[in-house]
Specification:
Helix content: under 10%
Strand order of the largest sheet: 3-4-8-5-6-7
Family: Belongs to the peptidase S24 family.
Distance between the termini: 22 Å
CATH topology: Umud Fragment, subunit A
GO biological process, one term: SOS response
Strand content: 35-45%
Low-confidence stretches: none
Keywords: Autocatalytic cleavage, DNA damage, DNA repair, Hydrolase, SOS response
Number of domains: 1
Shape: globular
Number of strands: 8
Radius of gyration: 18 Å
CATH class: Mainly Beta
Structural class: mainly beta
Protein name: Protein impA
CATH superfamily: Umud Fragment, subunit A
CATH architecture: Ribbon
GO molecular function: DNA binding; hydrolase activity
Order of helices and strands: EEHEEEEEE
Length: 133
């Protein structure tokens, strides 16, 4: 994987602050390694729908999924069951997996798949979004 290094500045910025000046430049940030810990085990999927908006995942976002991580209670995961993929928060109740949406609109229900038919394909470790291309 090629390295894409971009200047990282040591500052926080309120939404009203103009652009950061190079006087604040501290280091370079390798964007790929920031989002990806295990390149050989990580892939990117595109989020579709609005069931995870309260987790900060919007329609069209690029999700970085790491297959090398063991899914834990509370992780956002990419799951496969009933013939399709879904991204939800994994909640373990009495040792049984539940897949929780994060959208309080009431449009989405908690999914309670049979553990035998559920495959956790990976843990969502980060999310990428562009505002202008």
């Amino acid at each position: 994987m090629d390295c894409l290094a971009i200047a990282e500045v040591e500052m926080t910025a309120s939404c009203g602050f103009p652009s950061p000046a190079m006087d604040y430049r501290v280091d370079e940030l390798d964007v790929a390694s920031y989002f990806v810990r295990e390149p050989a085990a990580t892939y990117i999927v595109t989020a579709r729908g609005d069931s995870m908006i309260e987790a900060g995942i919007l329609d069209g976002d690029k999700l970085f999924v790491d297959r090398s991580l063991e899914p834990r209670n509370g992780d956002i995961v990419l799951a496969f069951f009933d013939g399709s993929f879904t991204v939800k928060r994994l909640v373990l109740k009495n040792g049984r997996p539940e897949l929780h949406p994060e959208n309080s609109s009431g449009k989405y229900s908690v999914l309670r798949p049979d553990p035998e038919s559920l495959s956790i394909e990976g843990v969502v470790v980060s999310c990428g979004r562009t505002f202008r291309r």
